[in-house]
Known about the structure:
Elements: E1 2-5, E2 19-22, H1 27-37, H2 39-45, E3 46-47, E4 50-51, E5 55-59, E6 62-63, E7 80-85
Parallel strand pairs: 1-7
Antiparallel strand pairs: 1-2, 3-4, 5-6, 5-7
Helix pairs in contact: 1-2
Amino acid sequence: MATVRIPPMLRAQTGGKDTLEVPGGTVAEVLARVAADHPDLGERMYKNGELQRFLNIYLNDEDVRYLDHELNEPVKETDEIAIIPNVAGG
């Protein structure tokens, strides 16, 4: 199972857990499983079935937007997926 790292601002939706062990064949499948297992988090992650734009997803420290298959990138049991919200300031 892949390890999914949950940022502090979203941990209330996972019962305070900072990591989740989740099965799945691709990044998209892992994220969908996280959303299904934690519906409150799923509501924050997805809008109209699409991943929210303010979330950055990393697979083993690589931004999935720059990987060959993006969210369809295959996931191995030893992989780590990080959910990182955008932070803006001024």
